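Hey team,

Sharing the Carboxypeptidase-like regulatory domain-containing protein run so nobody has to redo it. Sequence (505 residues) first:
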Amino acid sequence: MMKNALTALLCLVGFQVAVAQSVSGRIIDSETGAPLSFADVQINDSNSIMSNTEGGFTVPEKNADDATMLTVSFLGYYTQYLTVRDLKNNDGTVRLKPGAFKLETVYISKASMNADSIMASVKNNLKNNYKFYGSNNKTTFFYRSSAAITPAKAEAKISQSTKYSKEEIKEANKELETFISTIKANPPKEFADVLIDHYMTKKMVKGKIGFLTRDQVIKAVKLRDNSNPISLNDMLETGAKILFTHLDPEKYYRIKSGWFGTRDTIVSHNSFDTDDVTKEKNNLKDVTSEISIFRSGSSLQYSSNLDFVKNNEIYKYSFVGVTEDGDNGRVFIIKFRPGKRRAKYNGTLYIAEKDYAVIRADYGLADGRKLGGINLKFILGIKQLENVSRGTLVFKESEEGGYYLKYASKESGEYVYINRPLKFIEITNGGKEKIEFEVKVEMNVLNRQEFCFVSKSAITEAEFDALEEKDFEYETVDGYSPDIWKEFTSIEPLEEMKQFKNVTQ
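Structure output:
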């Protein structure tokens, strides 16, 4: 009897473990097998998630019951309805069937308008389609950011000194060489995930009606190798610390670089020593500001960079055809490319016929185009170019009318080149003591950002007033684990993030 009871208990535990695990899936084209990036996965008609660029998605643990209903949709494909049980039985694969696709010669109603006419209608309807809606509500967002530095060349060495011996210079250069070798061998990377509740209400403020917002972070995680600096500033600071260990702690220095001296820039031995200094920080303020800037930069109406919708006169548009979408009916497909020199992007727009709203935009810098930068390589030894900018925007129609940003992804990158001599000249003693070193840096910096709208619900003004914003601390981990977000809705990470681990482990 004891044996039977134990068997029953083990079976029960096994069942509980089974239902408690999150479930992963992959969405592909049923005909070609190609992954479908940024497909929408609705969970029980409430929360929704998006597939990543590899078509992957994960149903969080709390929704992983076999009976959970999933609605998988993708522009130009037939929507599929299935349960978590069905997903498991299909080895985690969702195969969407391509929908009808009509060329211009077949579709003879409004599609007979040329691309420029369609884009003119899109521009005229921008304000109405994307106007601000909503107050007294709580919206939940998921935000992921990552940064990676790939140094192509990095050198730093003390070339001469009027004060220190050759052995001391040799020792300092050895430390610098070790630091740079570590950076080259293990290029710095960092990933940060944040799930956040954003509250908004409309009320009287100082005699005027205005909108107030408050935020509460539900969970925040960082994946990083703490042994490596992640930003250019961190790298320069670490290198400077090494250099300054060989300077007189009682002296002050001014910096001279190339032809330009900076007499008003004074540094000392402890200029880069932050160990004993408590830096004021506010993670909540930083991340909410970052999300706000990212959302503003993803606005087709207000973004200064994403001009391919509102600046029709500098782009060339071509009508590709028409497809069907379950939520929006007929959808025009428009390709765009630069028509004038100041146009930067090419890509594809998907436009709802019913109101000329852009419901999806895929964009990237056209060949030879750059967002900006400086090139003083031969004068000052400095060059910086913003040479990567690509992304996807997905908009959904809201119940109040108009469209909101459902999902956005963006990759931005820059090329950095520095080749300059630096001199530290002692302020006292008539400036006779000098230390000169050479810095050569060539690197690529790549940043990725993803934003996903998860859910929205109404709140009362009293509920808003009762909220209290509190700062938070990131949970820092050395390597990715699927358990990190098993209880919450999130964006399935790419394989690069899954393979991340601390190189010092």
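Confidence is low (pLDDT under 50) at residues 1-20, 102-111, 259-264, 274-278.

Ping me if you want the raw files.
A.
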